[in-house]
Amino acid sequence: MEQMLKNGIWKRKAGKLLTYACLLLGVYVMLVPFIWMVFTSFKTFSEAMRVPIQWLPDTFNLQNYQKILSMNIGRYYKNTIFITVFITAGQLLIGSMAAYAFARIRFPFRNALFGLLLCMLMIPSQMTLIPKYAMCGRLGLVDTLWGIITPNMFSVTVTFFLRQAFLSLPSELEDAARIDGCSRFRFYWEIAIPLSKSTLVSMGILASLYAWNDLLWPTIVASSDKTRVLSVFIAAIKGEHNNKLPLLMAAGVLSVLPMIAGFIVGQKHFVAAIATTGIKE
Amino acid sequence: MDKGRPQHIGKLRNRHKDWIFAYLFIAPLMIGVTTFTLIPIAQSFYYSFTKWNGVQTPVWTGFGNYIKLLGDAVFRQEFFNTFCYVFISVPVSLILSLIVANLLNAKIRGRTVFRVIYFLPNVTMSVVVALIWTLMFNSQFGVINDFLYKLFEIRPSWLTDPGLIMAVVIVVSVWSSVGYNVVILLAGLQNVPQNYYEACELDGAGAISKFVHITIPLVSPTVFFLTITSTINAFNSFDLVFMFTTNGAGPTRDAIRTIVYGIYETGFQFFEMGYASAKAVVLFFIIMLITLIQFIVQKKWVHY
Prior knowledge:
The complex is a heterodimer. By secondary structure, chain A is mainly α. Chain A has 15 helices and no strands. Chain A has 2 domains: 2-60; 72-240, Orthogonal Bundle (MetI-like fold), CATH 1.10.3720. In chain A, 75% of the residues lie in helices and 0% in strands. The relative contact order of chain A is 0.12. Chain B has a two-stranded antiparallel ribbon. Chain B folds into 2 domains: 4-47; 66-301, Orthogonal Bundle (MetI-like fold). The radius of gyration of chain B is 26 Å and the shape is globular. In chain B, a hairpin with a 7-residue loop joins β1 and β2 (59-60). In chain B, α7 (165-189) packs across α9 (207-236) and α12 packs antiparallel against α13. The longest helix of chain B is centred in the first third of the chain and has 44 residues, at 4-47. Chain B starts with a helix and ends with a helix. Chain B is mainly α. Chains A and B meet through α1, α4, α5, α6 and α10 of A and α1, α3, α4, α5 and α6 of B.
């Protein structure tokens, strides 16, 4: 009996050790590329081309960063922030308005319209690239930042999850407020919105991640120098300076820094955001 | 009776006011979705039956584009590559994610830190992910070949060998998708009652049999959800392929060109918008069909 117990304990300890070993191997695989990028960004051209490879640069020199900063990256940063703010704000405002109506007001064709929206969730956006581009052309949006923003301001996903949040508000709350003379609009703006803050934050995170990182649509609709965003910039300099790896890495570090910093600070909210979209109910 | 009437009318008026309010509130979304999704879908179908360079008026060609697709070797390559990419990267990523999520679900210290690290690629723009990995896979001074050279004295040219580049794209896509899947699987695993495991332990089950007999069936709805969404995403992925094809010579590019890449190239580099639309329509039906098949097959393996 005692022998068995002892065996069990050993087995459990070995299992735990194995678990940590596997997880740490995973951490190694996940982190090495990032570390390698950061180290390389401080290297000179010749240091980066040494064989066998050398992990640390001889000195942490900033010349790659200086060069990238002299390449107008300020403008690309500004453009990226601009589109991210407006896409996120647009998705949240437009989505929450529609979500409120769908969740809390009875009106003709409500279910049919909502069903139509849900069907659209299944349409891959790649399918509509060409007509969407033509549409932007007709609206005079090609090669403007609004061309990136406008088609991306309408999110069915955001509407769907905000509707769920608004549905969960007790209807007595709204009845009581309405009897006290609170208008629909005031209820939406001063009660429903603040009470659904966590869903709004989650959806805001997802929207801004998408806006900041997307490549395909900005490449198509606005890739000239004045409307360039960071992702397009990276793709472009990769084409121009294919071999200047340290330079490319410095650009990469600068482009992902804000999102990674935000993620590390607010990781709890990021994880919650992802988890909400994965839960079907 | 007379007294009741004005009240009734008042209610009706109120209801109408509500309707107007509701329509005003859904108007921006409905207008946007109509302009940028609904009409474009219809147009995609229409353009796919035309020859159109994006500037002049489209010329109706009937099934011309679709017939051309059938005989197009480039499209056949795109089709094959897309399936190869989807059907390897999605299962590999899901299996790895299940293992990692299961390990993280045990009582271990530092779960949050692990989760943050695994999730890091998901907040990194995929353009930069591709950039990092071109560096990792560089044949001369990349980390991977440095390692391989020390062990086996080989230096495969990952990025320029048409036989290897697809493997690179798959590895990178798996690397960047595991964290997302893990987060969602962990949320699903949290719903598995702990006493199931305890009961199983009393029966003397080991870690592997617990994984196979309890964890997998109980998270199967989550796995199903992830299978559907990651398959759709994989069919639509563009960024990695785009990044690994810049400066790639013809054969390397052809080895990883996917349907979405084909849509981009045909439509926005060759300006054959009608032909590109036909590719988009085909992609749409492929995705629909695969999703439908998954919904039928799920009855066999998903436990609710």
